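Q: Structure tokens for this one, please.
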Amino acid sequence: MFAAVIKLARRKDRKENPHAVLVPGGLPGVWITGGLGFMVVVAGILISLVSPGDSSNKLGFELKLVAGTLGSVLLGLVLYWRGARAKQTET
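A: Here is the predicted structure, written as tokens:
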């Protein structure tokens, strides 16, 4: 999402589009806000990988973390494939 804001800021029609939301500060403002947002998300992901100090089963925590992540990614892929297949059958 934060990389998309940086990429979409270079579109030619963004100033003419009445529905576009412009980030204050122009292109430098987009880079600052997009970069900071990306860094906060990465820091949150890294912090979530550390098991709580009072956890007695650190391996169990890590396995649940990996299983939850894989389950979420698989659910997203299933929904994407289902939507793509439905879109193909429409055309």
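A few notes: Helices lie at 2-8, 26-48, 58-90. Residues 51 and 62 are 7 Å apart (CA to CA).
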